[in-house]
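Good morning C.,

I know you're traveling, so I'll keep this short. The sequence:
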Amino acid sequence: MIIFGYRGGKRSDHGPALPLNCPNCHNQTFYRYLTVTNWFTLFFIPLIPVSSKHYLACPVCTRALQLDKPGRERAAKLVELTALLNAGSIDQTEYLRRVQELGGPTTPAESLPEPGPSLPPPPVGT
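The tokens, ready to paste straight into the viewer:
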């Protein structure tokens, strides 16, 4: 007997991407760049990724904004910039200048337009 199935919702957290005011919970926090991948499984072992969705998500209330391909590329660059800021390699003025070049907010406290749905809870055991 072969047991196969579908496992959804494996999250990958790429790190903090952008300081924003969450329009849902009103906290000023770094939105995180997340990928949620659904897998085809065989004997409960994930083998083949079926689909992936990419989000910028509030770590407080988990409200998320789904990203398209240009948004994913921009979010990856923002994660790199935020890592440079946190490591002390660049100062906040340089960080904000580079964020604006990428099309980010003009001030660190700017809000996203409208939140998307909450992300699904992570699967048990991950």
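Safe travels,
E.
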